[in-house]
Automatic annotation (TrEMBL):
Family recorded in the similarity comment: Belongs to the glycosyl hydrolase 29 family.
GO-annotated biological processes: fucose metabolic process; glycoside catabolic process
Enzyme Commission number(s): 3.2.1.51
Enzyme class: hydrolase
Protein name: alpha-L-fucosidase
Domain of life: Eukaryota
Organism: Plectus sambesii
Cross-referenced InterPro entries: GH, Glyco_hydro_29, Glyco_hydro_29_N
GO molecular function (one): alpha-L-fucosidase activity
Length: 116
């Protein structure tokens, strides 16, 4: 009986080794085949969602307009009015909870749009 388990383990290990054939670099990852739908889809949606959604003010480039070379006076005023002194962009992290996100609703909207 022990021989059976050894053969099964070796067989499983070799299968997993052939399945995980990619290395953690772009040259290796770029050898992956594209799924057929990727080239066949006519319309897609790219969703970019991050901590900038916490203040949900002005733009997704919120940090740049707040701390960049030419800070936007509207954003500076917004921060001053709504957050304590010394508040940093990283402080938005724990506030990013996705509490009101509903994946089912989002998927229905995307599907009804015709995106693939």
């Amino acid at each position: 009986m022990g021989c059976f388990w050894l053969i099964l383990l070796i067989s499983l290990a070799s299968t997993l080794n052939s399945v995980c054939a990619y290395e953690p670099n772009w040259k290796s990852l770029d050898t992956r085949p594209l799924p057929s739908w990727y080239d066949e889809a006519k319309f897609g949606i790219f969703c970019h969602w991050g901590v900038f959604a916490v203040p949900a003010f002005k733009a997704d480039w919120f940090w740049y307009y707040w701390k960049g070379p030419n800070p936007d006076p509207e954003i500076l005023k917004f921060i001053e009015k709504n957050y304590k002194p010394g508040f940093s962009y990283g402080d938005f992290g724990p506030l990013f909870t996705a509490e009101f996100f509903n994946a089912t609703t989002f998927a229905k909207i995307v599907k009804s749009s015709g995106a693939k």
